[in-house]
């Protein structure tokens, strides 16, 4: 069996259209850096974002949301509690949810401890870069805060092991994206290194994954479809004018995405 099957645009189109038909309500508990970009990314693909953070509100909102994103990027005391309450409720109500374990690792033990507590509430998908996936599995990783210094190829076995251990899907992004449930693994090449020069492309991809797994009969392919869509948008976005225009152009590409993007 091949290490990973290349995931193609033709496979993603059904899932991309599904978002536009369903307009899923995505409950986002994400970091302070990427709130606005994430909301715009979700609107661009046809989903409805809602950034509901207060610990008094998260449980009742998980009940009405189609899916949930928890991103620990700028976690602190009060948001940690909101995250734990929301994840617990999502597990109870079987609401699909995504964990983005931003910058976990030995030098940031507070968030790493919370990330492990969150894992006990069975995320549907863990979406992270290679350093985060290695660190979550307790292995040596060379992260630089939220940025990865490890290759996804070298971390693939760890991603598979993590998926099997937690009975979840791991979407590990980088030069090559890998999406695995521990048995089936898809790979996606392409994208553009400029995606790492604009903050929040990974974080907003995690929100896209949450939108794609809402009411989906095939969460693995739904997750791969979200990853493919972000890579293609990064490839097609305008890189001639500088990184500011590039960030806005990603939104343009996501909102006009169609099946001609082979
Ligand atoms: N070297 C690269 N070449 C092409 N595409 C890349 C490269 N590195 C990352 N990407 C793409 O950039 C997007 C974000 O992935 P990345 O792994 O950088 O997330 P991240 O580190 O969690 O980002 P952030 O924390 O800033 O939101 C994905 O679509 C991924 O495929
Ligand atoms: C820059 C940064 N710092 C904490 S979260 C975040 C957004 C990218 O992950
Ligand atoms: Mg990240």
TrEMBL record:
SUPFAM superfamilies named in the record: Ribokinase-like
Top-level lineage group: Bacteria
Substrates-to-products reaction catalysed: 5-(2-hydroxyethyl)-4-methylthiazole + ATP = 4-methyl-5-(2-phosphooxyethyl)-thiazole + ADP + H(+)
Enzyme Commission numbers on file: 2.7.1.50
GO molecular function: ATP binding; hydroxyethylthiazole kinase activity; hydroxymethylpyrimidine kinase activity; magnesium ion binding; phosphomethylpyrimidine kinase activity
GO cellular component, one term: cytosol
Pfam families: HK (PF02110)
Cofactor field: Mg(2+)
Function per UniProt: Catalyzes the phosphorylation of the hydroxyl group of 4-methyl-5-beta-hydroxyethylthiazole (THZ).
Protein name stated in the entry: Hydroxyethylthiazole kinase
Lineage, broadest ranks: Bacteria, Pseudomonadati, Pseudomonadota, Gammaproteobacteria, Orbales
């Amino acid at each position: 069996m091949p290490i990973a099957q290349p995931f193609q645009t033709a496979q993603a189109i059904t899932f991309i259209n599904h978002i536009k038909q369903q307009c899923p309500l995505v409950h986002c508990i994400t970091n302070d850096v990427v709130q606005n970009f994430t909301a715009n990314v979700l609107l661009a693909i046809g989903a409805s974002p809602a950034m509901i953070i207060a610990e008094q509100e998260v449980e009742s909102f998980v009940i009405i949301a189609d899916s949930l994103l928890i991103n620990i990027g700028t976690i602190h005391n009060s948001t940690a509690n909101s995250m734990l309450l929301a994840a617990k409720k999502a597990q109870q109500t079987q609401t699909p949810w995504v964990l983005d374990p931003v910058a976990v690792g030995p030098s940031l033990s507070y968030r790493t401890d919370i990330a492990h507590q969150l894992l006990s509430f069975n995320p549907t998908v863990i979406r992270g870069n290679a350093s985060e996936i290695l660190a979550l599995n307790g292995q040596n990783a060379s992260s630089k805060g939220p940025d990865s210094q490890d290759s996804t190829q070298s971390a693939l076995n760890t991603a598979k092991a993590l998926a099997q251990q937690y009975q979840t899907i791991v979407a590990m992004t980088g030069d090559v994206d890998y999406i695995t449930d521990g048995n089936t693994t898809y790979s996606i090449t392409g994208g553009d290194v400029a995606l790492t020069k604009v903050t929040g492309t990974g974080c907003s991809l995690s929100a896209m994954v949450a939108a794609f797994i809402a009411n989906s009969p095939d969460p693995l392919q739904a997750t791969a479809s979200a990853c493919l869509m972000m890579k293609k948008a990064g490839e097609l976005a305008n890189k001639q004018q500088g990184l500011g225009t590039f960030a806005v152009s990603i939104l343009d590409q996501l909102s006009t995405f169609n099946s001609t993007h082979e």
